[in-house]
Each structure stands twice: as structure tokens, then as C-alpha cells.
Amino acid sequence: MRHLLWAAVLALCAGPSLAQDPATLVADRVLILGDNVLVAEGSVEILQMGMTLTAARVTFDAAKDSLSIDGPILLTDDSGSRILADQAELSADFRNGILTGARLVLAQQLQLAAAEVQRVGGRYTELGRTVASSCQVCAANPVPFWEIRAQSVVHDQVAQQLYFKGAQLRFSGVPVFYIPRLRMPDPGLNRATGFLRPDYRITNQLGYGIIQPYFIVIDPSRDLTLAPYVTSRQGRSLGLRYRQAYDSGQLEVNGALSTDNILPDELRGYLFASGGFSLPRDFALTFGLQAVSDNGYLIDYGISEQDYLDSFVEVQRVNRDDFVLGRLHYYESLRETAGTIPTSSLGDLLKIRRFTFPGLGGAANLRYLLTGENRVSSSVQDVNGDGIPDGLDTAQALIGLDWSREWYLPGGLVGTAQVLGQADVTAVNQDPSYPARIGRLYGAVGGKLGWPLRRVEDSGAIQVLEPVAQVLLSPDSSPDVPNEDSQLVEFDEGNLFSLNRFPGTDEVELSNRAALGLNWTRFGADGSTLALTLGRVLRAQDLDQFSLSSGLDGAASDWLVGMQVFTAWGLGLTQRFLVGDKAALTAAEARLNWAASDFGLTSGYYYSIADPADGKPDAISELTIGGTWNLAANWTGEAGVRHDFIAGRTSRASVGMQFRNECLLVNLSLSRWFADSTSVNPTTEFNVSLDLLGFGGAASPGPARQCRS
Prior knowledge:
It contains three helices and 44 strands. The protein is mostly beta strands.
């Protein structure tokens, strides 16, 4: 029969420790010898101050205020740390004493084994000659992947730090590194000042290199990471990352300064900053700063593949019936020629108010817009060849109103009335082909009629078939303004029945027109979805507003064919085709995502005919593929490629492998970026990183090695 003694019983024979810190003891047998000695035997368990001790036998001497313990012993504290030992002599409060044949287990992952472990003051655990590892060891795997052997180790439970003296790092039993003094965070610590995992990088331009980050905790809300980078080809770089958290937001700054043989006479570098804050009255502020010394720096140092810089500040508020946006953007191209992204600044002030007209019902949106774009250049000539004067500046004020309402008609028909009206004034500077000020009035009115039909299959699947027809009346002419925000027009399922298919406000869709569409969707009983869309736009007259590659050119647009497939087993496929009357393909786009238990695949394909008016002097046929797959229990592979079929070359290719088990993470990657620019050179990059899992801030462990007899 097990016995339970409460603190009051123990206090009768206990010294000051147990009297001040009551404990609970549970055992199969309990003996009280004389006035000062209590003996507990058989599955002994003691609970005190958040700690739990289990043992085979415990002898408590009240006169000495000590515990003599026979194992197997397990001492667990409230942080989850555990000490396993054969024998122990501890103070009654477990805070001081010696354990022999002991192992310290932190966060159920990192194990430190020593012949003797000493507890000091309840804060420190001191180990003698120690072996530390998070790798699984058994008869089949007697040697861990890695281990740290040390003359002594001290675990500071409060600071959550491990201090090694005379540390030797071994891989598969082979010594590879010796460190007289080593400090590591314990597994429960996420942030601590110290060195982070080094990264090894090899590129064809910089040679062999090592990046050794050093992390600095400034306070609970701020930290700084310094990352020196030294290469074999005289490359010297110092990177930094600063982060700060506020009660209402956050700030992050990344940057670097470098010297190298790529541009030997220049100091190179970059600075990126971003952040966001909550403001009063539900407003939110976001901002970003991007600056770089030269066009090739981001590629050369593997930071980013972007070809333009965007510095901005935005303030917005989103409510159920109200949207307010104010923003300023500064764009700077990193291409040899600026093209459609010149060095310029853009400002917008937008307010949209959603409401219902009294007596009319439906949904109405009232929009106010102030926008302007200013280019750095002051030239009225088109030097960069993008069809726009290099110094063109514009500003626009606009007010617009749209309204729609649905009615359910006999026979299951759904009718929708649609109205759009807007007025705007545009100021033009440094473009002699336009007047200084241009005023416009624009409107569109019409309706849409749909007939949704529903069918339920015997399997429980549901099919919905809906033919839709839309008719809109619009003016045949409108004053022309510089087209700054509607350069790229796409014809897809999202704008088949739009009132204005231009994405911005500089262009408006003219002429009376009709849109015809047929939608079919099947919702499977297993959660799968199959959707098909067929549509076309017909105009009373061709006003040559749209480019050839948009699919909207001519009195009759191309046929829009769209398909979406989503399966219950993780496959997602979306496709869009624009097909002319003679079955000629104008544009095609496909995206594939497939997430399975053993692999993941993402792929995209884009095709477009040549269209110089749309910035496409040559046809485009480009494929991107990226995937990951589980090669074995601990091995994962990944690969990616981006190929241009028209140019007959690959612009980007990468391959990588990852090994992860319970104690080790190794990443290997090889990538090639093919450039055809005089300012950016082709770059081949090889990266190696290694993590010893089990310490604070490390990645999560993977599957453990199998132990077989």
C-alpha cells in the first residue's frame, strides 16, 4: 500500500528547509527512525517548489537537513530540465548537492553526461568531465553524429546558458575543433548574444567565402546582427540587421558595406529598411527604404534578384464601408535602360466610400482620387526608347461613382443593373504632344443577365452552369491623356464583365459593347473543384484602344478560355488561354501547385505573342518550375529552373539538398543566374550551412536514426 505524507507530517521530523518549503512525499513504505531520520522506499516521489524527484529509496536526515538518494533517480524542475542519476546527496530543498553517474537533459533534446553532477544554489548545475550531444545513441549507433567533450560544463538555469571549459567538437568520433572556452544557449533560450551558425558561400566572382554572423541582444525589444563576410578574391564585407519591436509596430533595417575586385575602386553596399505602425482611428502606417550603390550589387552578394528599387510610405484605413489610402513611392530602375520603370516618384491620395442609395437599394461606391507622378529627368525627349518623354510629369484629380443592384427574376434568372460615372482633370508637364490641362467626363450604363442552373449528381457532387450576357453603353470618344497606370492590360475571368477593363484611371474603355460568358463549375463530394469559363467581348466599333497581346484588340476580342482544378489530394491548376478566330494563340498562362506528403511542386508557364506597342518586341515563352521532395527519411531535395524557350536559354537554375535528423541540419545549394547585361554579370553560387540542433534558437529536429538490435 502506498503512503502519502503531507508537509505537516514531514515538518514534525524535518529541519528548517522542509518546514519553510512544504513538500509532498509518496512511497510504498515509509519508516521514521528516532527523532531525525525518515526513510522512504519503493517508487518514491517527492514534490517541492515546482520540482519533482523520483527514486527507489530516499533517506532524510533532519539534523543534517539532507537527502541520501538511491537510484534510478529522476529530478525534474519546472523548466522541464531533467537530471538522471544513480546516486545523490542533496540538500532537503534539492538546491545543493552531488549526483553521481548523472545525465542532464534539457528540453528533452540536449543531453550532457558526466560521472558527477553538482547542484549549487538551485541555479547552477556543474558537471565534471562531460559529453554533450543531442544525437541518439544506442547499441546500433554507438557513436553520435556530433558531440562536445569538455573538461567541465556549467549550466546557468536562470540565464539559460551553458559554459564549456576545454571543449572539443567531434564528428563521428573524430576531433575536428578545440575551443578553450565556449558559451552556448540552452535549448529553451531563443535570443542570446553570441555567434550564430556560419554560412559558407562560393561564387564565380567572389571566390570562396565565409559569413560569420554575431547576434547582439540590446534589450527585450531590440537586437543587432553583424555579419562579416570575407572571400578569397579580396572581398571584404560587413552586413548588419537591426530589429526593434514597439507596442504599436516594428522596424527592421538591413544593410552592408563591401569592397571587392568586381568594382575595385568603389565602396559598394545597400540599405533596406521596412516597418509598420498602428495609428489612431484605425489607421496603419507602413514604410520601406531601398538604396544600393550599383546595379549589380544585390545579385553579386546573393541578396535579391529584383531589378528596381521601391522606397515608399503608406497610410491606410480599411473599414466595412470605408477605405482611405495615402502613399508616396520613389522608384529607381536597376536595368541598363529604365524602360517602363524610370527613376520617378508617385503619390496617391484615395478615398472610397461604400453606401446604399435611399429608395434604390443596391451597392454604391464613391471614389475620390488625387494622384501624381514626377520623373527625375526634365527632358522632353524619349532617350530611353520607351515611347514616353523622359521628363513627363502628370497629376490627376478624379471623382467617380459606381452603382449596381441585383434582381431575382422569374425562371431563376438574375438581372443586374450597372452604372459608372466619373470626372477627372489631368495636368501634363514636359510633353509637348498634350495640352497642359485635360478635363474628361466618362460614363457607362448597362446591365447583366445570368441564368444559374444547378444539378446534383448521385455521388453528391454539385454542378452549376451559368450563361451570362452583359450589355454596356459608353461614349465613343474621350480626351486622351498620358497613359501612366494602364500600360499592362490582361483579359481574364476577373474582368470579363468589368465596366472598365483598364487597371488604372488614365484610360477609359469606350464604345458600346457586350460581353458573353459561360461558367461551369463542379463541386465534388470529396472537396474537389473543377471550373471552366468561356467568354468574349464584342464592340460596336473598333477604337484601337487595346494592344494586340492583351486579347482585347479589335471589334471582337479573342476567346477567353479559363480552367481551374483543385483536387482533394493537394493538386491545384489554373489555366488561361486567349485564342483568336483562326485558333491562333495570343496568350497563355498556367500555374500548378501540388502539395503531397512526399513532395511539393510549383510551376508556371507564360506565353505571349510579340507586341512592340505593349513593350514586347519579341514573343515570350517562359517556364518556371520549382519543387521539393523527400528522398529518404532524413534527406530532402529541391530544384528550380526558369527557361526562356524563345531565346533558347535558361535564366535561372538551382538545386539543393538538406539532411536533417534529431541532432544535425545540413543545407547544400547550388544556383546559377544567367545575366545578359553589361552592368550585371552571370553568377554561380554555392552555399553550405550546418546546424548543431539542440541549442537555443536552432531549427526544429527531424526524424531520429533507427536503433535496431
